[in-house]
Amino acid sequence: MKRIHKTLSVTLAGLAWAAPLFISAAAEPASASQFAQKPCGTVTVAAAADLMYAMNEITANFEKATGCAVRVSTGSSGNFLSQIENGAPFDVFFSADIEYPRKLEVEGLAVPGSTYLYAVGKIVLWVRKDSRLDVTKGLAALRDPAIQKVAIANPQHAPYGRAAEEALRNAGLYDAVKDRLVLGENISQAAQFVESGNADAGILALSLVVSPGLKEKGRYARVPENLYKPIQQGVVLIRASPNPEGARAFLDYIKSPATAALLERYGFVLPAEVKP
Amino acid sequence: MNWQAITLSLKLAGSVAGILLVAGLPIAYWVTFSRWRWKFLIEAVVALPLVLPPTVLGYYILVGLGPRTFPGKLWQSWFGQTLPFTFGGLLIASVLYSLPFAVQPFSAGFETVDRTLIEASWTLGASRLGTFFRVILPLSAAGAITGTVLSFAHTIGEFGVVLMVGGNIPGATRTVSIDIYDQVQAANYEAANRTALVLLLFSFLVLSVIYGTNRRAMSLWRKP
Hints:
The structure holds two protein chains of two kinds.
Chain A lengths: L1 H17 L23 E7 L3 H15 L2 E7 L1 H9 L6 E4 L3 H8 L9 E6 L1 E6 L21 E4 L5 H12 L3 H4 L3 E4 L2 H9 L5 E5 H4 L8 E5 L8 E7 L6 H11 L2 H9 L11
Parallel strand pairs in A: 1-2, 1-3, 6-7, 6-8
Antiparallel strand pairs in A: 3-10, 4-10, 5-8, 5-9
Chain B lengths: L2 H31 L5 H13 L2 H11 L5 H10 L7 H25 L3 H9 L4 H12 L1 H16 L3 H6 L10 H10 L3 H25 L1 H8 L2
């Protein structure tokens, strides 16, 4: 019995120690950031999963142009948001939803005024090459009972998942498809579900299905843009950045015409072309 | 609080513990009493999930047993569906993944049984099955309980495999650990906090019960 009491008190002490973890880390004061002239060390980038392929090329170009090194983590925007809110040491955050960078600015965790709309994402209906589904019929093709599983990203926290759900609802298909949905943790996991054949179709990011990884493996049809709100993608500088100069240099590079052209090639629509 | 996810996790863990009790006991019996010289190979296979990252098992289930491979096609023709995104798929993955957590304590329990008692039972005419249920199992009950509770608890705590092959379907594959992950990602810290606290208390309770009531049982687990 004594032992149990001891175990209990140790555990309670552990809980007390862990409690501050539940409170988001306070922001550190911003350091004076200037444009980098010298080699700028390593820039650590958190990028939404839809950028997975485009980012490889962007960072390679940036490294060649500046001599800086870039480390990229890709994942779901929601996951990065909560990691940054809890002190993750990223320099730059590319979110598939511009609301997340804005939220970080409001919370004092991102450099004020640094949020930049770099692209607008599009969703498509995608099937593997060997599928018999006629994607040109659009989302309505999903009514086909042969389609057992439809992969989308998790609408709870992934912007592309939210857009997919919204499009299904607006097309009046949500109830018909609801029970066949499987949710990827982020948009590239959803793509993987379809690519591996475990799901029969997916509502995916255009930027993924035109990428080298998936281009040859399937067919797609764009989801009509009146069915969902534009997926506005925002990038922001993180206030607690370990390398603010490098971060700013990278952000400037993102704004360059060369990067814009590259993003366009990867299926992103550029902000300039978006009607207000 | 997502009761559906909690119920699902309990159902999954209960099924895994039940299956492993039935399937794990004969495996453990064989591992303990067999004199086959290549026995160590089977022991290594049973212990694999202790070492392998969940992503390896997840990968094999998703791609190796996917609808594009021969075993996957075979499975699909039998059951009309592939393993991923189903409760059955999670069940199989969890049984494999918790196998050593059941078999090793079972086996450690059997080893503590005095061989002379077993032989006495046999010479007095009891069958092997009779000896197992009336001599071996009662004398190694601590190991059986520990193995069952550990496989139950380990399944509750499973995350990686479920994230990879589950597809996050409410009521079928959205377990409580996935639910917490989703809540954190969606920045619903309050919901995550509540569920996490329930799990923390639950796990603490389970382990306290084992440690408190059955110190000998846990020492069986620690034994290599």
